[in-house]
Known about the structure:
- By secondary structure, the chain is an alpha+beta fold.
- 19% of the residues lie in helices and 34% in strands.
- This is Methionyl-tRNA formyltransferase.
Amino acid sequence: MATVRKFTVVPLDDARPHEDVEAIVRLVDCGRERLIQIDTYGRPTREKPGKLSQTIRLDKAAFEKLVEIGSKHF
Length: 74
C-alpha cells in the first residue's frame, strides 16, 4: 500500500486500452488525517479472481490535485 501526497503529470504517447476491473473507494480516518483509498481487484480471468491487486491512498492535497488534473484533461 502507498500514500500519494503529490503528482507529477507526464503525457503517455503510446497508450493502449486496458481491461476493466472492479474498484472500491474507501473513506479512511487514520485519526491524524483522512484519506481516500482506492482498492483495485484483478481481472476475473486471473489465477485468483477477486483478489486485491493494488491499493493507493490519497491525502487531501493529492485528491484535490487529482481532481484539478482530471478537470483540465476531460
